[in-house]
Design goal:
alpha+beta, nine-stranded mixed beta sheet, globular
């Protein structure tokens, strides 16, 4: 039986980890620099909150973080990249409720939920959906999901119930041949990324015969706990692997969480009330990002979350980069090939026709400047039928060569974004 094309577009949007303010309409400053008044930022009455996990849930987060590192090892290249593994978890978690048999087992395993299954993915996504936005008044986190369904097809009732219960996704039936649906989907993506991702689909990628478009959006807006002074930003040399170039290098000296291994220096830059953080892994001279990545697991990641304190002379480039990566081969290589095979895929609980994933991709964007970070990502799936030192040490952390960065939630260690900056 011929299986139908199912478009599942998952918009993963982490937008703005800079100051908790926005640009005014009459702002004529450099569009690459986000600025706001000094008195906008305050941690008064902004107590640090935590997401409470039991032992089993902690293990699930660790396994999902292993997925994040495995994913990035597949994505990484010789250019700057950024991906959102947690958004892929949302996208596949929602679609997984329509899967069965070996297809569902493969998805569970890839996401790190092999021992507990689809219901635990749902519970994890629900917990992060409801609790992640409440942790920091200076960090805005929004997670949204939706489903656009072709009027010629019908979702299964149990799938709809789980989409609503765990993902707050409200399916909407559309006429995909009306010439408007593509614009509706793109508008949803723009609305849930503060216009950072304005186009998920174009005339070439939109398929009016698709069964469904499923979208997830993650939006993140926060403030550095310790901002950089723009007056200290100067052009300096960045030593890429293939060439050197001049980049705007931010500079500050402050006490931060810091550690190092034989391969790299690790620095934690917190946002707001410290609920969210960016961890930068800077390979030591003579080492590469690959040297760091090959030893990066959930276990080593946990150790990076427990750092000593140090007075850090910090230099970090101001940059912007964008990633558009196809995920079919990557996700298949990670262990879920059946979902992409029209002869083997099992999605009997999704809708009233047999389906398989014919395309899966992610588009992501990040800006990092003196105020913080701005980032957004869109993933598209097309389916066809604290130890403290008494006296902090003084260290130099000059990110003037390729480095890794991870944006995560502090209490769970859950990874929202992982990327690398190569100087391009």
């Amino acid at each position: 039986m011929k299986k139908n094309v199912l478009w599942v577009a998952i918009a993963l949007m982490m937008a703005t980890t800079w100051s908790a303010c926005s640009k005014s309409d009459d702002d004529t400053s450099d569009p690459g620099v986000i600025s706001c008044p000094e008195d906008t930022l305050s941690n008064e009455n902004n107590e640090l909150r935590f997401i409470s996990l039991d032992r089993a849930e902690i293990e699930l987060v660790n396994e999902n973080n292993n997925f994040a590192f495995n994913l990035f090892r597949q994505v990484t290249s010789d250019k700057s990249e950024i991906v959102s593994p947690i958004s892929i978890t949302y996208a596949l978690g929602m679609l997984n409720n329509g899967a069965a048999g070996e297809t569902q087992k493969e998805i569970n395993k890839v996401l790190g939920f092999e021992k507990v299954g689809a219901d635990s993915i749902n519970a994890f996504c629900r917990k992060m959906l409801t609790e992640a936005p409440t942790l920091d008044k200076l960090t805005k986190v929004m997670i949204a999901n939706t489903i656009y369904m072709n009027k010629d097809f019908e979702l299964k009732s149990d799938f709809i119930n789980k989409a609503k219960t765990y993902y707050e996704a409200e399916p909407e039936t559309c006429d995909f041949h009306d010439g408007k649906t593509m614009d509706v989907i793109n508008q949803w993506a723009s609305d849930h990324t503060e216009k950072m991702i304005e186009k998920v689909l174009d005339e070439e990628s939109f398929n009016p015969d698709a069964v469904s478009y499923l979208l997830n959006a993650i939006y993140f807006k926060g403030a550095w706990a310790e901002k950089f002074d723009k007056n200290n930003t100067k052009d300096e040399t960045f030593k890429g692997y293939s060439a050197e170039k001049q980049v705007p290098m931010m500079h500050q000296e402050h006490e931060f969480n810091y550690s190092e291994t034989d391969n790299c220096q690790a620095l934690c830059l917190p946002y707001g009330n410290l609920a969210y953080r960016m961890t930068i892994l800077l390979p030591k001279e003579g080492k590469t990002i690959s040297d760091v990545l090959k030893n990066l697991t959930a276990g080593t990641w946990e150790r990076y979350q427990i750092m000593g304190r140090a007075i850090v002379d910090l230099k970090l480039p101001r940059f912007e980069s964008m990633t558009d990566v196809g995920l079919n081969k990557i996700m298949s290589a990670l262990g879920m090939p059946r979902a992409f095979d029209p002869n083997l895929a099992e999605f009997p609980n999704f809708c009233n026709v047999p389906t398989f994933i014919s395309m899966m991709k992610q588009v992501a964007r990040i800006k990092l400047n003196e105020e913080g970070t701005e980032a957004a990502a869109v993933t598209a799936i097309t389916a066809a039928t604290t130890a403290l030192a008494p006296e902090p040490q003084h260290v130099q952390f000059f990110a003037n060569r390729p480095f890794l960065y991870v944006i995560s939630e502090q209490s769970t260690g859950a990874i929202f974004f992982i990327g690398q900056y190569m100087g391009d």
